[in-house]
Design goal:
The chain is α/β, with parallel strands linked by helices. It has four helices and five strands; from the N terminus they run βαβββαβαα. The chain binds zinc ion.
């Protein structure tokens, strides 16, 4: 696996069967990790109907991790009824650190990113214009342009913690 792409589901706080088809891992509001239908390895070579399609134009080699949240989100003012919780976010970051360790994925903007960042980097794919993640409810002071690096800093911190344990 060459990278991790982090999403929100734009759904409610718990994964649906449909969402499980699209992400390898889903983090619920309490921080519990749910496995999707497909394994990350199923995305090494994407065969029709046999992989998790989470990132248009970028599924190959990509682990898809989603936080179950953000249905009804419009903006930082209209966040909807399912804002990402702090527990959920932190658990997701710790889990991503474990994935980095397991798959030996370095933490860089090219290898650990949000779906939003992927869309910016690959504007000709169907991921262009995706808004996950442009707003982090538990850290609402982080500007949307900074969320990717904020996430990478968090994942690095958890990775160092894992290594020292
Ligand atoms: Zn997404």
């Amino acid at each position: 696996m060459k990278r991790i792409i982090i999403h929100w589901t734009a759904g409610n706080y718990y994964p649906t069967e449909y969402e499980k088809l699209h992400y390898h891992f889903l983090v619920d509001k309490n921080g519990k990790i749910h496995k999707g239908k497909y394994r990350p390895e199923d995305n090494e070579i994407c065969r029709p109907g046999k992989y998790a399609s989470h990132t248009g134009g970028g599924n190959t080699g990509s682990v898809g991790v989603a936080m179950c949240a953000m249905a009804g989100f419009k903006s930082g003012i209209i966040v909807g009824n399912f804002p990402i919780t702090k527990k959920q976010f932190e658990s997701c970051m710790e889990f991503c650190a474990n994935l980095c360790k397991k798959y030996k994925i370095p933490i860089s903007p090219q290898t650990v990113m949000t779906h939003y960042e992927f869309g910016l980097n690959y504007p000709k794919t169907s991921s262009a214009g995706k808004i996950d993640i442009i707003y982090l409810p538990p850290y609402s002071w982080v500007f949307k342009e900074e969320i990717g690096s904020f996430i990478r800093t968090k994942v690095k911190w958890y990775l160092n913690k894992v290594k020292s344990e």
